[in-house]
Design brief:
The chain has helices at 40-48, 113-116, 119-132, 147-160, 172-180, 204-213, 235-239, 253-262, 283-291; strands at 2-10, 13-20, 28-38, 61-62, 67-74, 86-89, 96-100, 105-107, 139-143, 164-168, 184-186, 194-199, 214-222, 243-246, 274-279, 299-303. It has 306 residues and is of the alpha/beta class. The protein folds into two domains: 2-112 and 264-303, Medium-chain alcohol dehydrogenases, catalytic domain (Quinone Oxidoreductase, Chain A, domain 1); 120-246, NAD(P)-binding Rossmann-like Domain (Rossmann fold, 3-Layer(aba) Sandwich). Strand 9 (139-143), helix 4 and strand 10 (164-168) form a beta-alpha-beta unit. The radius of gyration is 20 Å and the shape is globular. It holds the Pfam family ADH_N. Keywords: Oxidoreductase. Residues 26-89 form the Alcohol dehydrogenase-like N-terminal domain. One of its GO terms (molecular function) is oxidoreductase activity.
Length: 306
């Protein structure tokens, strides 16, 4: 089996690399990709070599981490899956991949893959929210209404049941999507004082606004990668004696998926996060368009040939 993988070989230099895949091990599955996604907040800084958390990147490097496909071969020690099942995994922009069976998440046939692809980042958002452990009556402010911010809102409203979730973002069209998900949109500054804050903006301005809006002894979780701006603690952090915790990756992708897929009929509008769609052979051009701001979607859906 020949695998084609989109590889970053230098700043703004993408190439499709090919290699022959080995036979699968008994605890592995072979997946044929049906769809994937560009996670713009994470991938574009890597593509442009502007990620402030990685000043000396090494090449070549793999790209992407959101994949949906069909199991076409399965090892004898893999349980709970069969050939023909649809799954999500984190191998990125590849047409085929071999994965450990326990690392993939089975997707029910009733779930559209545009929704299923969001499970990975939704689980990452959920882990950060659970670290704060807000109550339904608490006031929560989310900084940034990009993909992570919107998935955080979805988790706060539908898993935790928080009644007041506000979001601050300078881009109006993002705020409109947030309101559809149940949040109150704030363009610049909030006059409300919040119990909890969640940083999803990756911007110094967004983080500063979040710190200013917090109550004394309030709690903040940083979910953003901080790969666009370096985040600094301003005077509000010290004067209000705020507490900040970081969060990375998800809490349990399989357990989260069971809840997330159950939400499908209730919140199908979550799929509106995908605002642009391409075929896999258009990936290289799409990254260039994104870097030039010719297009500015929240998230890009990538379809592979069946």
């Amino acid at each position: 089996m020949l695998q084609h993988s989109l590889t970053l070989v230098g700043p703004k230099q993408l190439e499709w690399k090919s290699k022959v895949l080995p036979p699968i091990e008994e605890d592995e599955v072979l997946i044929r990709t049906i769809a994937g996604a560009i996670s713009i907040g994470a991938e574009l800084p890597q593509y442009s070599e502007t990620d402030v958390t990685d000043p000396n990147p090494s090449y070549p490097r793999e790209t992407g981490y959101e994949s949906y496909g069909k199991v076409v071969e399965i090892g004898r020690e893999v349980w709970g899956l069969k050939v023909g099942d649809h799954v999500i995994a984190t191998y990125g922009h590849k047409d085929y991949s071999i994965e450990k069976g326990h690392n993939v998440v089975k997707v029910p046939e009733s779930i559209n893959y545009t929704y299923a692809l969001l499970n990975t980042l939704s689980c990452d958002a959920g882990k950060g929210v659970l670290k704060l452990n807000p109550e339904p009556k608490d006031r929560v402010l989310v900084a940034g209404a990009g993909t992570m911010g919107l998935l955080t809102i979805h988790f706060l409203k539908n898993y935790v049941g928080v009644e007041q979730v506000d979001v601050i973002d300078p881009i109006l069209r993002r705020g409109e999507v947030a309101e559809v998900l149940g949040a109150k949109y704030i363009l610049k500054e909030s006059s409300t004082v919040y119990d909890f804050g969640i940083e999803c903006s990756s911007s110094k301005a967004g983080f500063d606004a979040l710190l200013r809006a917090m109550k004394r002894n309030g709690d903040i979780c940083v979910l953003s990668d901080g790969n666009k701006d370096l985040l600094y603690l301003n005077e509000d952090f010290y004067e209000k004696e705020l507490r900040i915790v970081g969060s990375s990756d998800g809490w349990d992708y399989h357990k989260h998926a069971r809840w997330f897929f159950d939400c499908y009929k209730k919140t199908p509008q979550l799929q509106d996060i995908f605002q642009h769609e391409i075929k896999s052979n258009e990936l290289i051009d799409c990254f260039e368009e994104l870097s030039q701001h010719t297009i500015n979607p929240l998230k890009v859906l990538v379809r592979y040939e069946e």
